[in-house]
Amino acid sequence: MPDPLLQMTGLDAHYGDFQALYGVGMVVREGEVLAIIGANGAGKTTLMRSVTGLITNDAGQIRFKGQDISGLRADQVAELGLAMVPEGRQLFPSLTVEENLLIGAQTGRKGPWTLEAVNALFPILKERRAVPATALSGGQQQMVAIGRALMSNPELILFDEISLGLAPIIIRDIYAALPGIIGEGMSAIIVEQDISKALSVSGRVYCLQEGRVSLEGASATISREDISRAYFGIE
Ligand SMILES: Nc1ncnc2c1ncn2[C@@H]1O[C@H](COP(=O)(O)OP(=O)(O)OP(=O)(O)O)[C@@H](O)[C@H]1O
Ligand SMILES: [Mg+2]
């Protein structure tokens, strides 16, 4: 077996006295789409922020492409080929759509995802390139956030709550764009509230419950009962 693309081992995380992650271990293999599900407050965002260098872990290790990246800064992690579409999008409100996209190219690597490529994926962003990002609808802002992450040409892209708060028609558009994004060697972690969606786009799934991995399995064969138990802690 080759090394996994990403491997987390024994990860703990705290916010002050509060412990948000307890010994979390996960792997992402090359070319894989991994889903992470879990109730509000389970620790999904904390885990994504750990991987992308936005918070420091108190224990454990994160290895990416065989290299220990625990303790690296976010920009150093981006240089290695990791990018995140963050929860709540976190666009720069004073910048235009195009300026927000170009920010993504300032970190990370060179590659096929240029401004032209992102505009071809989401043509509405070209039309609206000169308006402030905050003038867009929620769904269009999510497209900017995805585009910005792509502009750093990641090898592994993390989506934290890809469809939360978006209209169904927009969710459909964004999911329709996913195969054009992933594939050609890119791997992905998708954090998703909608369990059916999460299972339908991923090869494997992990469930987090109160900071711990409560379930791991193949998305196609995992049972609904096991998911309910792992998600809600109901016996
Ligand atoms: N900045 C913070 N300061 C203190 N506690 C925090 C902070 N961020 C998160 N937490 C707490 O850590 C726990 C895990 O939060 P996290 O945001 O990782 O969960 P989540 O699974 O992403 O939830 P959601 O589905 O609501 O996005 C929660 O109990 C949360 O209240
Ligand atoms: Mg979250």
Note down, in words, how this protein is organized.
There is one protein chain. Helices cover 33% and strands 26% of the residues. Helix 6 runs parallel beside helix 7 (168-181). The longest helix is centred in the C-terminal third of the chain and has 14 residues, at 168-181. It has one domain: Rossmann fold (3-Layer(aba) Sandwich). Strand 9 (204-209) and strand 10 (212-218) form a beta hairpin. The chain is α/β, with parallel strands linked by helices and 235 residues long. The relative contact order is 0.18. Strands 6-7-8-3-9-10 form a 6-stranded mixed sheet, with helices on both faces. A 4-stranded antiparallel sheet has the order 2-1-4-5, covered by helices on one side. It contains 9 helices and 10 strands. The radius of gyration is 17 Å and the shape is globular. Bound molecules: adenosine-5'-triphosphate (ATP) and magnesium ion (MG). Adenosine-5'-triphosphate binds at residues 15, 18, 20, 38, 40-46, 87. Residues 15, 18, 20, 38, 40-46, 87 line the site of adenosine-5'-triphosphate.
